[in-house]
Amino acid sequence: MALIKSIKGKKPHFGKDHWLADNATVVGNVTTGDNCTIWFNAVVRGDVNSITIGHKVNIQDNAVIHCTYQKAATTIGSNVSIGHNANVHGCTIHDNVLIGMGAIVMDNCVVNSNSVIAAGAVLLENTIVEPNSIYAGIPAKKVKDLEPDKSQFLIERTANNYIKYASWYQEDEH
Predict the structure, then answer these.
(1) Contact, 121 vs 136, CB < 8 A?
(2) CA 57 to chain centre
(3) DSSP conformational letter for 130
(4) CB atoms within 10 A of CB 1
(5) pTM of the model
(6) Which helix (H) or strand (E) holds 143?
């Protein structure tokens, strides 16, 4: 069973139809929307500030979602995929975003809608990602515009797939 822990009187709150892997960790001031999944070894740690997560968000294996004490909360919109080993810290991720595997998103970054952060990219503190774009590299820079229908398909497909994958585990748990 996932580790769900209160701290300083704050406890996580989950939306409908969520799924947590057995060894996922969710701590403190965390709120998720409906149809969210938090995968194996992922950590969502709202111990020093708040973490607010929209609907249909998947936080994949080994990802870390955190925030900064008295400085930067973390807000993640709806229809967002956070890839394996990604770090999302004290930032704002808008709707319809894909954060690639191993990417790092630092404090006070804003990732606007319909964007992709490439695998391994590092968004330095205060970076503003344009909507409908791909950012890649270290430090991450815009490398390409995305056509809205193509980005929507890629991002939507990934988010929907993770709901499907979670259903496989739920079937075996009953």
Answers:
(1) yes
(2) 6
(3) P
(4) 8
(5) 0.95
(6) strand 141-145
The whole-angstrom distance between residue 75's C-alpha and the CA centroid of its chain comes to: 9
List helix spans (H) across the chain.
Answer: 148-173
C-alpha torsion angle, residues 88, 89, 93, 96 (rounded to 10): 10
Q: Which two tokens stand for residue 5?
A: 């822990």
The pLDDT tens digits for 27-66 are 999 999 999 999 999 999 999 999 999 999 999 999 999 9
Question: Which residue type, as a one-letter code, is found at position 25?
Answer: T
Q: What is the pLDDT of residues 85-98, one digit of tens each?
A: 999 999 999 999 99
The first and second tokens of residue 147, run together, are 């056509």
Strand extents, DSSP E, 6-113:
19-20, 25-32, 37-38, 43-53, 57-59, 64-66, 74-76, 80-82, 87-89, 92-93, 97-99, 104-105, 110-111
Tell me how far apart the alpha carbons of residues 169 and 63 are, in angstroms, rounded to a whole number.
19
In 3-state terms, what secondary structure has residue 72?
A: strand
The Cα–Cα gap between 82 and 92 comes to 13
142-146: long-range contacts, CB 8 A cutoff, minimum separation 24: 143/118, 146/114, 146/115, 146/116
Task: Collapse the DSSP code of 14 into the 3-class scheme (helix H, G, I; strand E, B; otherwise coil) and give the result.
Answer: coil
